[in-house]
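Molecular record:
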Amino acid sequence: MKHGILIIDRGSREQEVREELSNICSMLKKSGKYQYVGYCFLEVAPPYIKDGMFDALKHDLDRLTIVPYFLNPGKKWKLAVKTAMGFRKNSATEIVITKPLNSHPAMAELANQRIAEALDSHAVVTPKDKIDVLIIGHGSMDPDAKTALQYVTDRIQSKYKTAQYCFLEIEKPDIKQGIEIYEKNNSRILVVMLYFLHRGAHVKYDIYQDLIPAMKSSSIQQIITTKHLGVDPKIINLVNERICEVNQLAVLPKTTF
């Protein structure tokens, strides 16, 4: 059976995002028996979903699995699903769609890995039970998005003194309020985890417009910022797991790169 994979990302004009998605596609093709692996964007910049679907379907696939590359099942994910599945009725290719990346231990493990990397890079030797963590998520009006972020926060909580989350936009607490919460609690070392998939405009610019002023005005002794989630074998294995779930296949062996 000719099986193809199409990743639908939210969308970005940043070259780093395209590079990360290209790497993800290459790793997926290496890890599975897929005749086609490509990506497209819901919005912001081409290739849009229509472009991605046309490119995938011209490969004469028996089955195309759509992977909405989103951290939570919010409104953007739902729009991506609706748009992609609109192509199903006119296609001879069987089209199925996976769940997003939320509520899975791998995402909490990767977030914790980024926190540990940031602590190591700053040579922090303070015990973890003396370190606080603030996770910054995007923010959404959809309650499912907050549930997904709470899932990750709960699993990080047990490893550190405390862990809470805040949002870049739309929801409260915002970044300034998140920093202030820890300042009032007399935090000494705070790790700010950037819970974003890509190094897009939010990670490169938008977060720091709020974060830098909040850090400068804070009395917290040390504030450390992590990398974003990025490209990692944990995510590739999770995507493969999602693909297997929707196709009712045995889970592929975990692959290291």
The mean pLDDT is 91. The CA atoms of residues 22 and 39 lie 8 Å apart. The radius of gyration is 19 Å.
